[in-house]
Amino acid sequence: MPEALQISVSSAQEAQTYLRQQVFDLCVIQLPLPDEFGIRFARQCATQYPIGVLLLSKKETYDQIAYQVKEDGIFVLGLPCSKEIIYQALRCLHASCLQVQKANLQIQKLRRRIREDRLIYQAKLILIEQYHWSEEKAHHYIEQLSMNSSQKKAAVAQMIVDKSMIELK
């Protein structure tokens, strides 16, 4: 992993302050924390921020803690363990965070595409209703306007919908 900003704090409250001010990739929490045990804070980090969370617990409490956070996407390691194990866990956590980010970007692209497709479909329906065109002719018209004006089909469709709304008023 490249060298990154590392901040060490002694309480959940202090960590919360940093998390509000700056974006971090990972959060490592050694349990227990002085102001709370730390599971609530770990869950809060995992749900409120785009951040990977690693909990370090004593071996005696590992099973209980791992069970409590198993649905939250939080990694748990039992201490004591070697630096190599912690480093490997951080690399795995970082890799999984990157996968989640990629998946989220793909979801955003798909949602945008669905919005654009709905808009184009709405514009086609307007053209079909107003001019009694076939779906094929409405589709071709939108494509032609798009090419002639060097705009995306969604932008042309938005103009058609907007013009239709103005005419209805």
TrEMBL record:
It comes from the Bacteria. PROSITE patterns: ANTAR. It holds the Pfam family ANTAR. Residues 100-161 form the ANTAR domain. Transmembrane segments: none annotated. InterPro entries: ANTAR, CheY-like_superfamily, WH-like_DNA-bd_sf. Signal peptide: none annotated. This is ANTAR domain-containing protein.
